Fold this sequence. Notes:
The chain is α+β, with helices and mostly antiparallel strands. Helix content is 18%, strand content 42%. The chain contains 7 helices and 20 strands. The strands form 4 sheets. The protein has a 6-stranded antiparallel barrel. Strands 7-8-9-12-11-10 form a 6-stranded antiparallel beta barrel. It is globular, with a radius of gyration of 22 Å. 37% of the residues are buried. Mean pLDDT is 91; it is low at 9-16.
Amino acid sequence: MSVTLMLLLAALSFNLEAKDYSKLFAKVDPAVVVITTVSTVVQNTRQGSTKVSAGSLGSGVIISDEGHIMTAAHVVENADKISIKLTNNTTYPGRVISSSKLTDLALIKIDAPPKDLHFVKPWDSDKVDIGEEVFLIGTPYGLEHTLTVGHLSGRRIEAGDDALVDVEFLQTDAAVNQGNSGGPMFNTDGKLIGIVSHIRSKSGGHEGLGFTASINMAKRVLLEDSPIWLGVDFVPLKGKLAKALNIPTFQGLLVQSVAKDSLGDALNLRAGSIPVKVQDIEFLLGGDIIIEIGGDDFYLTRKGLQRAKDYMQGVASGEMLQLSVMRDGKKVILEAEKP
């Protein structure tokens, strides 16, 4: 057999094996949305620190005809305002229904969604094997509805007593960049199997290590547990730093920002305003430090988080939720109705 013929056969073989994603893309892309948010951040100027509005961009996927959307928690967690753009370029306001920072998952909803809304149902991520081809749709660097293809290259599971919460992330070599966060991962049948979370990168861009929250974890966290959206960004405090800030329980959550119209806002939690840097970690001082939830000391442990979760879920909608904070060196009790 001549070399030319061998190369021709190899090229034909490659073309036969390459999968055409055009029909799958056309089928599922109408369920993918572009999410833009506006948040309040602290910015340093020559005149000192000041609060300004900052925008951010992410993706999401519609999972019901009522306008429910799964996305990453870090896309919407601290948002004062959420806008959701559909494939037909219409834009709708949205709101956070549920959010879990530790699993980086959030459920948001379109206010007054249109009729005949296109959606995809969450599938079963346990049915996908390592090595199978997958594809993502998102908005990397603002390029809306971009498709990238790769493989399911690993499962990263943390569970048991050593983990704060049980998590499962699906690793992929499909390109993931800024703006992909919250977008969907599909298998080669167009089944929803993951929600894009984060990357590991030295350059800040795609290096072949992307991670999506498994859809089975997303269903458990968002559709079964339904954690309350507190709308608060915080820094965990423990050890020497907690002692330096005179926290009586030696553990707490230092509030960094509070989203408008969130539960944290209803509780009148005070955000930080004084930028500091300790051991290469930048954060804001001056905000409240959450030390009790429902009258019990808060501890950043698996049992402590479970106790806080049980309390939050045990309070009925419309009843009063209670937090205790350290504010200006004194303990202050805050209350608000559970939404």
